[in-house]
Design brief:
The chain has 164 residues and is mainly alpha-helical. It has one domain. Helices cover 65% and strands 0% of the residues. The protein contains nine helices and no strands. Helix 1 crosses helix 3, helix 1 crosses helix 6 and helix 3 crosses helix 7. The longest helix is centred in the middle third of the chain and has 24 residues.
């Protein structure tokens, strides 16, 4: 799944990284890889801390602008760009604030698109949690049968004890 996140970052890194004078061209690939790793690690950390409901709520749609998890990822990416690539803190924040929501929205959109098999919630949660639990079965127990059902938000309570 990390490769899929990296691909999304590459697809949307144009103005934020590749065409940005704040990041020297010789660091473009490393900056893209760092952003992808920061996104993956940020989501993975929330899963490992048992914050399944927060992660699952990302995939229910709506605005991610005020989502604390996305805000934390933006902050992490900005800090990393500033420290690893010598980007000013203001530029790093600007880059992260424009790129991360775009990538996250595309990630969520692809995961929720039944005609796009490149991402699905089962693989996302398994990839982030390092476990092979059955999201579909758990959603079925909640009365839903797909990743888009409203029972998705309750999955956090059911899965909370898996990674303790």
């Amino acid at each position: 799944m990390l490769d899929q996140i990296m691909d999304l970052v590459k697809q949307h890194a144009g103005d934020a990284i590749i065409n940005n004078q704040a990041i020297p061209n010789q660091h473009n690939d490393a900056a893209i890889a760092d952003v992808g790793n920061q996104i993956f690690s940020g989501l993975q950390n929330h899963i490992s801390q048992g914050n399944f409901q927060q992660v699952a709520s990302l995939f229910q749609g709506g605005s991610i602008a005020n989502n604390p998890m996305v805000t934390q990822i933006i902050s992490s990416v900005a800090g990393s760009l500033a420290s690893k690539f010598g980007v000013s803190p203001q530029s790093a924040q600007s880059i992260a604030s424009s790129l991360i929501p775009t990538v996250m929205n595309k990630f969520i959109s692809k995961t929720n698109d039944p005609s796009d098999s490149s991402f699905n919630l089962q693989d996302v949660m398994s990839g982030l949690g390092g476990s092979n639990f059955d999201i579909g079965g758990m959603l079925g127990q909640l009365g839903g049968s797909s990743k888009q059902d409203s029972g998705l938000g309750d999955i956090g309570g059911m899965l909370g004890g898996l990674f303790k």
